[in-house]
Input
Amino acid sequence: MSNIAAIILAAGEGTRMKSSLPKVLHPVCGKPMLQYLVNTIRSAGIKKIVAVVGHKAGLVRDTLKDIKCVTQPELLGTGDAVLKAKTVLMKDKKINTVLVLCGDVCLVTTETLSAIIDRHVSTRAGCTLLTAYMKNPTGYGRIVRNSNNRIARIIEELDASIYEKVIEEINVGVYCFNKEILFECLGKIKPNQRKKEYYLTDIIELLAKSSIPVESVTSNDSEEFLGVNTREDLNKVEQVARRRALDKITLKGVTVIDPYNTYISEDVIIDKDTIIYPYTFIENDVTIGSNCSIGPFARLRPGTLIEDGVSIGNFVEIVRSRIGNSTKVHHQCYIGDTVIGRNVNIGAGTIVANYDGKNKHKTIIEDNAFIGTGTILVAPVRIGKGARTGAGSVVTKNHNVPAGKTVVGVPARILKIKKER
Ligand code: UD1
Ligand code: MG
Output
């Protein structure tokens, strides 16, 4: 794959989204759209990726930290955007094939990219397009074929006649080009009369007229090929991405009782025989072991690691914390920046006060500790092995509880057991 590069078009504003955030940065199942494309391209074995950025370029570059970005100073259309990658790609003599992906077609899979590349290589085409069949494909470019069923051109919705608008085969926005042909043809396209933009799609007619073969890979699975242009599209894509994320963990042996009312981010890892109860939110960067019970109504936020056999109950929020084997956090708790050992019981209504208004501090609760109902732990603080807190106690900061001791009251003090006479 060292001869193939990918260009991601990510300069557009996404006006139809009506958002101050660039379209390609809108999160889908917890991750920016662009990140999906980068991951998919990489898993297809392509190392060289160039992203074209423009609108709010700084923000987009920050998301694409380790990707080469080139700037499109004026948003003059997808054809102009691809041209901005010319210098970088022409310099690299090893590259002879270029994949071009619209940044808003984020659900395309690695298998599909590989299928386009395979077809492109085996047919030696000038361009191989991804097309799909869609009922009422408003907004998409339509594939116009000639009497021999060869692709003759792509007509955009705005320019399409009523006869062309009924075509159900659409341009997905993912293409594989011969590098030399791509940049040579881009130099020849003229701005679209109506939108005054250079359309990448106009290349297809140029190729067809010069008898350079245009091939296609076609699918009926229009779901994979949704382009996000509006919030409505974003909702549809979110549903698909969420279902894929759930399918992934279900295949690993996890039970999700109510998939329609459970949110699990794309990169969450959950081990087998864990059960997720309804109305649970599991965000990015969360790992859960085996044989756990999570929810209903639990919220696990980034930086949470839950070991095996843990039970997390209703209205429990956990962030940047580690919960040890067989520990129970059952009812109405907030646990932040905390390391909890094994076999700990966190009583109902326990709150870790990790934030002092300026900084966040750590709490450590060691193995076999028993935290009484309604305890407040003011961080930084450490609860020793097997120690106990009484119901409603407030353990103030730095007042660590030694192993085996019991504290009670506000502020919490060590309970002294009177000696019997
Ligand atoms: C485009 C295609 C259309 C296809 C559809 C698939 C063109 C002319 N049309 O339309 O045939 O059916 O995608 O989803 O290509 N961008 C830039 N610079 C620009 C303009 C756009 O980088 O000057 C980027 C955008 O950030 C976006 C991508 O190109 O990621 C596609 O732009 P968009 O406006 O969404 O094109 P569509 O109207 O969807
Ligand atoms: Mg689009």
